[in-house]
């Protein structure tokens, strides 16, 4: 169950980032407040998962999902560059997440 909670927390990392982007530098308060609420939920879920998961693994998976997810969303939604090097780096992050999960 802790892994499922951690995966949802990682997805929420991407969601709050998008909400903060939509807030346009915190000038659109509805999005900013929603981003704060979603980030708090994500933090709480990570904290709960730490009751059973190793801290290093859980943190790396959570932040890795956020980093890789944000990069992918940037490419798909905001026309950020999708160079081979960038995609390879995203793949390395994903490989690290999978490796940590498999070694737990």
UniProtKB/TrEMBL annotation:
GO terms for biological process: xenobiotic detoxification by transmembrane export across the plasma membrane. GO terms for cellular component: plasma membrane. SUPFAM superfamilies: Multidrug resistance efflux transporter EmrE (SSF103481). It comes from Noviherbaspirillum humi. Belongs to the drug/metabolite transporter (DMT) superfamily. Small multidrug resistance (SMR) (TC 2.A.7.1) family. Gdx/SugE subfamily. One of its GO terms (molecular function) is transmembrane transporter activity. The chain crosses the membrane at residues 30-50, 57-78, 84-103. It holds the Pfam family Multi_Drug_Res. The lineage of its organism: Bacteria, Pseudomonadati, Pseudomonadota, Betaproteobacteria, Burkholderiales. This is Guanidinium exporter. Keywords: Cell membrane, Membrane, Transmembrane, Transmembrane helix, Transport. It comes from the Bacteria. It is a multi-pass membrane protein. It is found in: Cell membrane.
């Amino acid at each position: 169950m802790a892994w499922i909670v951690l995966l949802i927390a990682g997805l929420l990392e991407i969601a709050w980032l998008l909400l903060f982007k939509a807030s346009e530098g915190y000038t659109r308060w509805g999005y900013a407040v929603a981003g704060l609420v979603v980030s708090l939920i994500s933090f709480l879920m990570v904290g709960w998962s730490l009751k059973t998961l190793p801290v290093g693994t859980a943190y790396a998976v959570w932040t890795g999902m956020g980093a890789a997810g944000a990069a992918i969303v940037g490419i798909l939604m905001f026309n950020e560059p999708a160079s081979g090097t960038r995609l390879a780096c995203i793949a390395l992050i994903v490989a690290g997440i999978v490796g940590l999960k498999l070694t737990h």
